């Protein structure tokens, strides 16, 4: 393998991060234009939630195939063609006039979300393992594209209407697609990877999915990424409904959540390299459990029957407290997103695209399922805070499973009287991939 220079590394990382930022901005466009469309068509919260979530479905499912294609063909062409295809879909969306037509158009818009795994596989190939966590953290900061939409799209929407806003997005993404093909270089392991992938069948590429560990990582990412996307989509609507804000103010406050929740992913990558992914995941889940519990509390009036009469008081999360809590939640979710993807090149160095595609797909499905569920919960329960109640249940389950798995792995370490790594499953050879174990050993994975 040819060792890339620093300039080559920075070039690849800069181009892929910029491309991913623009793709992510397109992927979450319905968080803003969806509100105007809902007003025009008289949509319910459930219908609006489905419209917001539909692009996330395509972006999630496509990650599996795009990851495999990137492993086989390299990120330069896959990334460039993906952006051009998505730009065409966004432009065609502006011709939709009915709700079913908008849902079909939203499926095409969702291809932008598949860019994540393409960029992960492309960027990781340029860096040595000791720096991959930081590099992928910087690349993952492209999530800030949702803040670009939350902050900028409302002003375009008010000035131009939703159709012209979508056309502006399509034009910018098409320009970036052409620029990426012209400026990006083939990654240094592309030739070896192509030869290796061509010798393996699809089933061999998917072999790591037999590890339960992959699905546990997927649950982590379902929360730290899927819930992040869902909340980025839902927050403007939530803020308008709960606090009576106008769309521009709601968009700017939502940006206060999405900007740090994206940029701090860089810090999460560095912390995962420096302190270990295990610690970062614990910090993420514990802070998220506390934050979502507090955000779940609906405004409640209490009457205490005192000695001298009734004492009344109200508990509610006012707007300043809400902003602090949502900022805290976004910060720790950002750390967790980087920590999850720190694991994958370590465990599955020859299957980053395939395994990362599956983890990204499941995480992205969270971005599809959760906004839709938020809308249904609103319509069924009539409680705005029900979305945070659901998020609390998910993160509590992820924390419990992670802690159980780590404790199980630590028993192997204790038996050997040593701790070999911060990543617990790597502490013993029988728990490590590649899949060269016997069937009895496979059953021992957690």
Automatic annotation (TrEMBL):
Pfam families reported in the protein's UniProt record: MFS_1 (PF07690)
Name of the protein described by the UniProt record: NarK/NasA family nitrate transporter
Region of interest (Disordered), residue spans: 425-446
Cellular component aspect of the GO annotation: membrane
Transmembrane segments: 12-35, 47-66, 78-96, 102-124, 136-160, 166-184, 214-235, 247-268, 280-297, 317-340, 352-377, 383-402
Membrane topology, as annotated: Multi-pass membrane protein
InterPro entries, A to Z: MFS, MFS_dom, MFS_trans_sf, NO3_transporter
An MF annotation (GO) of this entry: nitrate transmembrane transporter activity
Domain Major facilitator superfamily (MFS) profile residue range list: 11-410
Residues of the signal peptide: none
An example Gene Ontology biological process: nitrate assimilation
Coiled coil ranges: none
Subcellular location: Membrane
Family label: Belongs to the major facilitator superfamily. Nitrate/nitrite porter (TC 2.A.1.8) family.
Organism: Marinobacter adhaerens
Keyword annotations of the record: Membrane, Nitrate assimilation, Transmembrane, Transmembrane helix
